[in-house]
Specification:
The two termini are 44 Å apart. By secondary structure, the chain is mainly α. The protein has helices at residues 40-48, 61-70, 73-89, 103-121, 129-151, 156-178, 182-208, 230-252, 261-278, 281-300, 305-341, 354-365, 370-375, 385-388, 395-420, 427-446, 453-466, 470-474, and strands spanning 8-10, 16-18, 214-217, 220-223. Helix 10 (281-300) runs antiparallel to helix 11. The chain is built from 18 helices and four strands.
Length: 481
């Protein structure tokens, strides 16, 4: 390829080199040169300068842009999607006009198409145990999708469920191509933090100006913005806390110069504001769990002074407002559960009636023919959507109904194989990944996180990172366990 003066190629490391119009595949993606003409890169290079970001500035906004624009065009859409996703989700109401005008629906159709194009365009990395486990789970989902198409072809709701059922799998395989090192994973995390800024702005508008969307549950008003439900608010709260905590620890190691105590305080304050206004029990529980994990990790460090200061500030705040929050915001959410524990109400009312719902669903499931129990409810002649969607309020039961015992076993094996890789990463990334896995597992008890695209963006990115070759996971362990 001949050199062309005045045009440059931006590698994903942030360095620029003379190339003819740019756009071939970097070495990290493997495969031969792909002629993808991309005029954005030389223009961006002239604006930003042709220098690699200095040490300690790898998470600056400028460095983030260098990383983003340096991605091949067939991959660059994904972090952009993360950035615009909360904006699109706040236009959820347009589905009442027409599904074809709803941005979440449009994104839902385009995402698997773009993933497929990328998978066909780039060489897939060497397969790991996680890849093989994902393939088996994907097979179970494919069988369920075939059942849906057979019994309910050519309907919009069938298409919607086909796309949602396959969401975790096609995202995982796409992200196996996307994530080639820790820098890519951090780029996705940073995209999520930037996306959460919009969510925080919407929440502050609702609190200070006027609520956009309000639900009433157990006598409490829950704000939800333009999202379809309050869970979307909760997911961004949890991931903001996990990612900000991770970057905070990375900064303590001297790897970056941003995301200090001020960022942590802002994330915690905004998170608590969201919690006391969305009134979501699962998010309360996970937020407390992640905060506890943060302090546990902080006090294991050699210099926990900043953690002690943060804990003192949090304790001071709770001494003023803690009892008010518990009495007015948390107690109404737990009242029914406490009455069940004391024997005043039936056990079916536990977890806001979810236990009773799960019991009835399982009673229905065990009466089905063996092939339905093994491969899923998609092979029933009657529409199964109420049983394989978010109405299950438990992801494990939803997966059981959607893909049968075969699919549930494959999913649990996929998670188990991924968790086994945690021992291979250094303590910093282990903290981050444990936080993500805990969020996935705890949310799965009362909601269906595998049906929420923004949640899957992070969860599947974490697992795709763990699927990297062992030498890439252990290269940071030489000086730290």
């Amino acid at each position: 390829m001949s050199s062309d003066k005045g045009s440059f190629h931006l590698f994903r490391t942030g360095q620029f080199f003379p190339r003819n119009w740019v756009g071939f595949r970097p070495n990290g993606y493997g495969g031969k040169v792909a002629q993808i003409r991309d005029p954005v890169l030389p223009i961006f290079g002239l604006l930003c300068g042709f220098r690699k970001s200095p040490a300690g500035a790898t998470l600056t906004f400028r460095a983030y842009l260098v990383w983003l624009i340096g991605l091949p065009p067939l991959l660059r859409w994904f972090p952009i999607l993360i950035l615009v996703r909360p904006i699109a989700d706040n236009l959820y109401f347009l589905k009442n006009v027409s599904p074809f005008l709803s941005p979440p629906y449009i994104i839902g159709v385009l995402t698997p198409v773009l993933c497929a194009i990328a998978l066909l365009s780039f060489k897939y990395p060497n397969r790991s145990k996680i890849d093989r486990a994902a393939t088996w789970w994907g097979l179970a989902i494919l069988i369920a999708i075939i059942g849906l198409i057979i019994y309910d072809p050519l309907s919009l709701i069938s298409l919607e469920f086909v796309l949602k059922l396959g969401l975790p799998i096609y995202l995982f395989f796409f992200l196996r191509i996307f994530i080639t090192d820790l820098q890519d994973f951090r780029g996705i995390l940073q995209s999520t933090i930037y996306a959460a800024i919009f969510v925080a702005a919407v929440m502050l508008y609702e609190l200070l100006v006027n609520p956009i969307g309000v639900q009433e549950s157990r006598g409490l008003e829950r704000i939800q913005g333009g999202f379809g439900d309050v869970v979307s608010y909760g997911m961004y709260v949890i991931f903001s806390l996990i990612i900000a905590s991770y970057f905070y620890f990375v900064r303590q190691k001297g790897e970056i110069a941003h995301y200090g105590m001020g960022t942590m305080i802002a994330v915690i304050v905004l998170g608590v504001l969201a919690l006391v206004n969305i009134h979501h029990t699962a998010t309360y529980s996970i937020f407390t769990l992640i905060l506890g994990l943060f302090f546990l990790y902080q006090f294991r460090q050699k210099a926990p002074v900043s953690g002690i200061i943060l804990l003192l500030l949090l304790g001071l705040a709770m001494s003023y407002w803690g009892s008010l929050i518990v009495e007015e915001r948390i107690s109404p959410l737990l009242q029914t559960d406490l009455e069940v524990i004391s024997g005043d109400k039936d056990s079916d009312r536990l977890l806001h009636g979810r236990v009773g719902r799960w019991r009835k669903m399982l009673e229905i499931f065990v009466t089905q023919p063996l092939w339905v129990q093994f491969f899923g409810y998609s092979f029933q002649s009657k529409p199964p959507y109420s049983l394989i969607g978010i109405g299950a309020h438990n992801d494990f039961i939803r997966i059981l109904f959607a893909t049968g015992f075969f699919g549930l076993i494959c999913y649990l094996r996929f998670l188990a194989v991924s968790l086994a890789r945690l021992a291979k990463v250094r303590a910093l990334e282990r903290f981050l990944l444990i936080g993500i896995f805990l969020s996935l597992l705890f949310y799965s008890i009362s909601v269906t996180p595998t049906f929420y695209a923004p949640f899957m963006y992070i969860a599947m990115a974490a697992i795709a990172f763990l699927a990297l070759p062992e030498e890439k996971l252990t290269q940071w362990n030489r000086n730290e366990s």
